[in-house]
Specification:
- The protein is mostly helical.
- It has one domain.
- Helix content is 49%, strand content 5%.
- It has a two-stranded antiparallel sheet.
- The longest helix has 16 residues.
- It is flat.
- The two termini are 20 Å apart.
Length: 77
């Protein structure tokens, strides 16, 4: 069950997901899945992407969003 979420946190989480979608890398091997790959990000932008990933992780741990919902939103599933 998802925890209550305020409008600011929802907006921040949505922005983080939108940003992180740019880092989803399709697998080249048949037995691998899509995954987040921060090497796709320019070094000058890496801190912004890391902060988005940390926010998403915190929201998952706090029950704001499930891991499955996060993966689906990113297109990992």
């Amino acid at each position: 069950m998802n925890a209550p979420i305020d409008a600011k946190l929802k907006q921040d989480l949505d922005a983080a997901i939108h940003l992180l979608k740019k880092t989803v890398k399709p697998s080249t091997a048949t037995d691998e899945f899509k995954h987040i790959d921060l090497t796709l990000v320019a070094a000058s932008q890496k801190a912004k992407y890391e902060a988005a990933l940390m926010l998403a992780r915190k929201c998952i741990l706090d029950g704001v969003i499930t891991k499955e919902q996060f993966d689906t939103a990113l297109g990992l599933k």
